[in-house]
Amino acid sequence: MRNFDLTPLMRSTIGFDQLDKLFDAAFRETTRDTSYPPYNIVKLDQDKYRITMAVAGFAEEDLDITVQDNVLIVKGQIKNRDEGVEYLHRGIAQRAFEHRFQLADHVRVVGASLENGLLNIDLERVVPEQSRPRKIAIKASA
Known about the structure:
- By secondary structure, the protein is mainly beta.
- It has a domain at 35-131: Immunoglobulin-like.
- 11% of the residues lie in helices and 33% in strands.
- The chain has two helices and seven strands.
- The strands form two sheets. The protein has a four-stranded antiparallel sheet with strand order 1-2-7-6, with no helix packed on it. The chain has a three-stranded antiparallel sheet with strand order 3-4-5, with no helix packed on it.
- The longest helix has 11 residues, at 19-29.
- The N and C termini lie far apart (58 Å).
C-alpha cells in the first residue's frame, strides 16, 4: 500500500481534517468485492441523486439501510431460506452483502423503495444558508 504525504495540500486548505479518513476508506474498498449486488448511481437533478441496487430475491425485511457519520451502509441478509427446496439450477445469487457509500457533507437520505427487485435509495444535497456563498462588504477606512 502506498503512503501519501498530504502536507503540501494541507498548507493551502482549512477544515479538511477528514480527508485522510476518506483516502483510507477508498483504499480499503478496493480490497473488498464491491461487485455484488450490482448498483447504479444516478444524478437526477442539480442536488438529487439515486442509488439503485439489484437485489433480486431479497424482501424488505431482508434489507437494512443505515446512515452513520456520513456513511450510508446497505446490508442484505436473507432471513427465511428456502428449506426443503431442491434446486436443479440456482443462478440467482442471494448471498449476504454489505455496501458502504461515503456521503459528502450536507447529503442526506430522503427515502428508499423496493420495486421489481430494485432497491432505490434517494439522496438530496441540502446546503444550509450559512454554507452558501455570500458577499463580504469591505468597509472604507476613516
